[in-house]
Amino acid sequence: MGVSAVIVEDSRLARNELKELLKSHTEVEVLGEAENVDKGFDLIQNTQPDILFLDINMPEKDGFELLEMLDEVPITIFTTAFDEYAIKSFEYNALDYLLKPINQKRFDQALEKAKAKLEDKQESDAAKRLTSSSQIFIKDGEKCWLVRIGEISHFEIVGNYSRVFFADEKPMLYKSLNQIEEKLPEEYFFRANRQQIVNTNYISEVVPWFNGKLKLTMKNGDEVEVSRRQSYLFKDKMSF
Question: Which residues carry this modification: 4-aspartylphosphate (predicted)?
Answer without folding.
Answer: 55
